[in-house]
Design a protein that fits this description.
- By secondary structure, the chain is mainly β.
- It folds into three domains: 129 residues, Immunoglobulin-like (Sandwich), CATH 2.60.40; 143 residues; 114 residues, Immunoglobulin-like, CATH 2.60.40.
- The chain contains five helices and 32 strands.
- The strands form eight sheets. Strands 23, 25, 26, 27, 28, 30 and 31 form a seven-stranded mixed beta sheet that branches. A five-stranded antiparallel beta sheet has the order 1-2-4-6-5, with no helix packed on it.
- The longest helix has 24 residues.
- The N terminus is likely disordered.
């Protein structure tokens, strides 16, 4: 038995070589084994001892593996009055096929320190019978059966975690944006082992139920779920943000986010842990969020309340030249920038006028999604041709109306530029490219005196008589033969 224990401790010593240890042995990054089955997971784990895991950069993308999500663990122990704690986060990778996967070296920042992990090759073999991750390196010891060791008793530890829908605002104007997020929170004091389960399929079904139908959505497109430390009511949690989007209500109807459920793998742990045996057993638990309501206020009365944009915007503009000449085009840019539904901004309504001929604009937009808001720019690039000389305020022709939810009032972005136009008036100038024909050419040689139209009906009679003679002659010749 001692020999077997020595072998097993040697295996543990060999595995520990995989750890990349940080300064003072407080931080380390460990990678999974060099060989796994096609149906097994490979992992990268960040561990912090005697300190909190305050921040870490994204886990690397690895060709041949697909990310399966992260899990967080923490523990605290007191031995002889000495308190020690550890906290870890693990990213799970699933192989896409059998073969050898090359994991390149990578660098991660943990608690503002850089750690470089050397690359390795991982052999992906045929599927194997799933075993507990803590005992998959060892076969069952027949000595245990000799001593009559039975199945361990498992207990269900109380978890300290919850699922929640949070919003950046509880009340908005119609058209005003607010950000909603679906997150899973795990307390730093949690002792129940939890793991993601079939998250992609679950999320697709959750979002069908969660997304409000009366809103324009700007999705933040979360690709990697990573933990972020947060404090709620004085208690420390790790937030795993699953989904985030900014919504813009299309009308004044109340927005309701219903309760949704997320199923997690929750392991039961052995009541009497053994070094040799399986010390935890897979089980499942559903976590449900609470419903969330957002009150939507209608916009104040205004002739354009049904079409006006809503947001906090400002104007930047550019005129290629303030000195203009009639008949010659000049480029002008009207750029709206700020916070709001950039995609929903409509083009300017240019009033009909005799001063400028304005062509349809080229439109470009740039949308940024950051923290809990959507910002960006939308530019309208015009070509304008002045038709009259003089000094003109472009604000009389280029202006855009919107409702500012920050002030609760309607506002106008109006051009502040002045155009100085020289040249001759082009207002009455018309270019005609059509040929009026010979009918109009006779106008110059014709008078305006009424004349009687001559009676030419005798010509028709003579022609008809000639036809009758020809037909009669033909009939006579046929009958004579």
């Amino acid at each position: 038995m001692k020999g077997r224990l020595g072998i097993r401790f040697s295996v543990f010593a060999l595995l520990s070589v995989l750890a990349i240890v940080g300064k003072g042995q407080d931080i380390r990054i460990t990678t999974g084994p060099e060989a796994i089955g096609e149906n097994q997971a490979w992992t990268i784990t960040i561990s912090v001892s005697n300190d909190r895991l305050k921040s870490y950069s994204g886990f690397p993308e690895i060709n041949g593996f697909r990310k399966g999500g992260t899990s967080q663990q923490s523990s605290t122990s007191i031995i002889n009055g000495q308190i020690s704690s550890s906290e870890s986060v693990t990213m799970t990778y699933r192989p896409s096929k059998q073969g050898t996967i090359t994991v390149p070296s990578f660098t991660m920042k943990v608690n503002d320190k850089d750690f470089t992990v050397p690359g390795k090759k991982v052999k992906i073999g045929p599927p194997v019978q799933q075993q507990d991750p803590y005992s998959r390196f060892f076969d069952r010891d027949p000595v245990d059966d000799f001593f009559g060791r039975g199945e361990p008793e498992y207990v269900d530890l109380k978890d300290d975690a919850f699922l929640a829908v949070t919003t950046s605002k509880d009340e908005v104007w119609a058209g005003e944006g607010f950000t909603a997020a679906l997150s899973f929170y795990i307390s730093v004091d949690n002792r129940a082992p939890l793991q993601w389960y079939n998250l992609s399929d679950q999320l697709n079904q959750i979002l069908k139920k969660l997304k409000p139908a009366n809103c324009w959505e700007e999705n933040f497109n979360i690709e990697t779920i990573e933990g972020e430390p947060v404090t709620i009511n004085g208690k420390d949690y790790t937030e795993f943000k699953i989904y985030q989007a900014t919504f813009f209500p299309l009308n004044a109807e109340e927005i309701v986010f219903p309760s949704v459920e997320l199923e997690m793998i929750k392991y039961k742990v052995a009541k009497n842990p053994s070094f040799y045996g399986q010390n935890r057993k897979e089980d499942f638990k559903k976590f449900a969020s609470r419903p969330k309501r957002i009150k939507v206020k209608p916009l104040p009365p205004h002739p354009l309340k049904d079409v006006v944009a809503v947001g906090d915007y400002k104007l930047s503009e550019n005129l290629s030249s303030g000195d203009m000449e009639t008949g010659k085009s000049t480029a002008y840019s009207f750029v709206i920038e700020g916070q709001g539904n950039i995609s929903g901004i409509e083009k300017l309504r240019i009033p009909e006028n005799q001063v400028f001929e304005v062509y349809e604009p080229q439109i470009r937009q740039n949308i940024r999604k950051e923290i809990n808001q959507v910002t960006g720019t939308k530019s309208f690039n015009y070509f304008i041709i002045p038709k009259e000389p003089g000094e003109f305020q472009l604000g009389d022709y280029f202006q855009w109306y919107f409702f500012n939810p920050r002030t609760g009032k309607y506002d106008t972005l109006r051009s502040q530029l002045t155009a100085y136009v020289t040249g001759e008036s082009k207002k009455n100038e018309a270019i005609q490219a059509n040929d009026l024909g010979t009918f109009y050419d006779k106008i110059e040689t014709s008078g305006n005196t009424l004349a009687q139209i001559p009676d030419n009906r005798w010509i028709r009679w003579v022609f008809n008589a000639f036809i009758l003679v020809v037909l009669g002659t033909s009939a006579y010749l046929v009958m004579k033969k």
